[in-house]
Amino acid sequence: MARPVPATPKILILNGPNLNMLGVREPSVYGRDTLADVEKLCRKTAKNLGLAVDFRQSNHEGELVTWIQEARAKMAGIVINAGAYTHTSVALLDALTLAELPVIEVHLSNIYKREPFRHKSYISPVARAVLCGFGAHGYALALEGLARMVKKS
Ligand code: DQA
Asked: From the CA of 111, how far away is ligand 1's center (Å)?
């Protein structure tokens, strides 16, 4: 008898405020890739890894919280670049904690090379791994790492 085909694990990729402006926003810091380019890279990488992705961006903290809550039951993991909310949001930390999913924190820039207020992350305590300074490639690296974690569990 044929075995049931396992569902493809789905990863939520979340982007916080101002990341919709990638490409035009401080290219010397964030590079020339647009968010659409980042999404394309994520989709290609995920396909090669046998993962599906739900790629989203919001400028609103509450919307990000709601999406994380919804991920709890539906997703196998979360990749998050919370933008400036990284440095301010207890609400995102709480949502990521209650999601009980493997979380990878990503930043395009090396936040530790920048202003001191960017050195504090509210997300890191709940993240299984943190990637910063790789530009858009950091998202692909995050998916590779997450794929290993998801396959092991
Ligand atoms: C960022 C770094 C944050 O400090 C900043 O507020 C962002 C982008 C990054 O990807 O490098 O919006 O998360």
From this structure: 7
> Is 57 inside any structural domain?
yes
pTM of the entire structure? Answer: 0.95
CATH (domain of 57): 3.40.50.9100
* Total domains, the chain: 1
Range of 138's domain?
10-152
- The amino acid at residue 76 is A
pLDDT, tens digit only, all 153 positions of the chain: 566 656 899 999 999 999 999 999 999 999 999 999 999 999 999 999 999 999 999 999 999 999 999 999 999 999 999 999 999 999 999 999 999 999 999 999 999 999 999 999 999 999 999 999 999 999 999 999 999 999 887
**Residue minimizing CA distance to atom 13 of ligand 1:** 83
Cβ within 8 Å of residue 64, ≥6 positions away: 14, 16, 58, 82, 85, 92, 95
